[in-house]
Amino acid sequence: MSSRRKPQGTIERDRAENARVKAPEPRLQPSDFGLSNEASRPVQSALIRAFVESFLELAAIIENARALANQSAVPTHEAEVLRVLEDANRLAENVKELSGWVYPPRIPMAFTEAVGKADALNQAGLEPDRVEQLFRILRKRPVGAPAKRRQSFIGAFEFMLESKKHSQGQATRKFCSCGKQTHDPQCEHNLKAGVRGLKEILRKYAPELVNRYDSLHPDRAKKVNG
Ligand SMILES: [Zn+2]
Question: 208: helix, coil or strand?
Answer without folding.
Answer: helix
